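[step 3/7] fold_predict: job queued, chain A
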Amino acid sequence: MHYISDSQKGGNMSFNAKSLFSLRNWLIYAEILAVVGFIVLAAFYIRRGSAESAPPPLSEIGNFITQADTRFAEQDFVDAARYYWQALQALEAVEKEHIISIGGVSQTAGTIGLHANLRISEIYSQKNWAKDARARLEHAARIQPDHADVRLLRGRLLSEDALDDALLAQATEEFLAVIESDPNNAEAHYRLGVLYHGNKQLEEAAVYYKKAIESDPEFRDVASEKSPIGILARLQLSRTYAKMLQDYRFLDREFTDEDLAEVTRLESESILLLEQALAQRPEMDEVIADLVRLYFARAAALEREDIETRGYGDALRVYERISELDPQEVRAWERMAEIYASFLGDTA
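[step 4/7] structure written:
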């Protein structure tokens, strides 16, 4: 059996103590290095984060707005919003009165901020983010509370979210305020027409639709709609006339001469309005569908006339127009064939 001497034990204990001391020192050094490394790393990320959150340079505002407006016109709303936001961040460094050139035109920072906030609010509205749209609109309102575009957009948001008469009344006030400051604002007239139409006040709706049409003779594109106001107002006025015409047909009395004249006017103008709209937007399916429906009603009325005055020839021309509008409309082709057969039979 092997025994360990006392001197060997002492040597081993001394060696173990030194090893533990070295290990402890190494751990301390490692902890110090870890702490220092953490501090350095944290400082690096803080500095980098500060650099990333720094506002874009003021010199880029013109480029941001130009890029944003181009994307907005192309309905590339994601990139448009990004550029508008960058412009707003750059504007934080200057006062509202600061002059900035955009496309060679000098504007104040406040005017540019108003434009960017309104466009962002419009984008949010079209994405159905009503809460965000209202919040961004309030930023625009702080810059110029009575600006026509601010009140117009506020009226739209109120009317879209209106759950009671009080909100509809507020929306009406906003649109009327826009018209007071800008009597030829086609969109404000159109929006009022829509409100009255929805409330079944057809006469009032017709008045504002007409004013909207008069105020948009050039069929200008608007940010809030896919078609010009002049087109939309014609479509809605035609539908208003069609509803008024329907109400005449349910009168509990015989038609007077005045009634007949009004019915003829409503029927003719409802079709004429749609033909005008179609001439500007031949691809608009809503207009085509409404026209086909109205022409079918006209053709049926012509065929219902007294036997002596029955307008088969006129009805035939109406069916021909329907087939031009919608070549897939089988009923029009069938009825034309029946009328041709009837005429041939009568003349044989």
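[step 5/7] annotate
The first strand starts at residue 99 and ends at 102.
Confidence is low (pLDDT under 50) at residues 6-10, 12-18, 40-52.
exit 0
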